Amino acid sequence: MQNNNSKWSFGIILFTILLSFGIFLLVFLSHVNKEPVAVYSVYVDGKIVGNLSSKKSFQEFINAKEEELKKKFGVDTIYTPDGVEIKKNITYNNLINSDEEVYNRIISNKRFTVEGYQITIVNPEEENNKKTIYVLSKDIFDKAVVNTIKSFVNEEEYNKFVTGTQEEIKDLGSLIENIDLLENITYKEMLIPTDKNIFTDVDVLSKYLLYGTLDEQETYTVTASDTIASIAESHKLNVQEFLIANPQFTSENNLLYESQIVHVGLIKPIISVVVDIHSVSEEVRPFDTETEYDSSQYVGYTEVIREGENGLDKVTRKSQYINGQLISGRVDTTTEIKPPVNRIIVKGDKYAPNVADLSYWAWPTDRPYTITSYFEYRWGSFHNGIDIYVGYGAPVYAANNGVVAAIGTGCTPGYLGCNGRQGNYILVNHNAGGYYTVYMHLRDIYVSKGQTVARGQKIGAMGNTGEVYPVPSTYNPYGGTHLHFGVRVGSPYGNHINPLGLF
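Predicted structure:
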């Protein structure tokens, strides 16, 4: 009995298998043509996702489905995503997928694309730090760059430079010699996935290039007691940065009105606008004070035996600005129009002058000079001294009598590891009133710790060691050259005061 049941069960199983195979064969044969047909196979990253009967019909279906994207980007055509290929194949299999079925398979992990440009921005000093921007057209980017340049260059002067209509300097004046971008910029035409941040508006891209973000910028409501300088300082900006963020103002002396809204966002440009200026100007050459000592008089005795009188020079400069910040101010020629007459004083000197005379401080560099940064906010932090530019290797002088309290040596240009930000430096204790002066970024140091120095004594040479901008490089070995001159009161690390207040 069991044998008969087993045979019966085996027969049912065999019948089921044969029936299933027959059904499969019928279905398969129903999709096989006697003659070969052309189909369009759709591949995503090399894997087939379906077959279409018409490539044109599928493209039309895509455009209909992506009407919202077309309106968003203002284009007539939306293209298939990157990695999607449509190939014509000849097959006997007539199994065709619907346009919608293939479309849904594609968008499950891909985005459709629009024609545009990939802009790559690379700073030659930071080649590993690349910025990528997507735009619908080169024209959008080019216009945004021009807008950014006009944030740092007067529009009228820019237009004259571009059209070649600048007037030559006959006696005094200035003109733009060159405007360029520090970064290397490359354009690549491509199909851009629509989930990328694609810029379609010049003004929006201009804002991004200037501020480095699309976030809403901070604003401030003016009060009755405000000035441009006070608003800038309270928001960690210098005046120039404030004027760039608020182009309706042309000078820190412009008037404000109560309840006026101004922008106080920190500028972090994506591109670096380099502007070279040639200028000829008349500059006052301040007189120096010559001191004669009378050993019969006690320290503190002072008598003026000749008053000083300022001179006048005609100075030709080559100045370079990067994003509105003066980087270098090389003096080409200096013609003396009127020589200064030095002031002469006699002071009592009954002991070695290792104590400063706080009534007169000597300027720490040669003249003429350029102050490239003042005692103010800069780039979002407070700059606690003044930066003076004369030239690489120019002499640096002690501002007053005192004793060398500390030195830092062993720095190479642009290297941050030796003494941090300050590079090679000298700290002088003036032994009076708690005053200390510091001289940073030196190329050379000519004094030693514990040595007594006199006002006007050459103690070092101007350089670019430590943290400077622009960073020295093989094509610009003198980049960042300047003297950071700082004054501290109370201790070597006491309160910083504005050095210009001493003079």
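Summary: Residues 118-263 form one domain.
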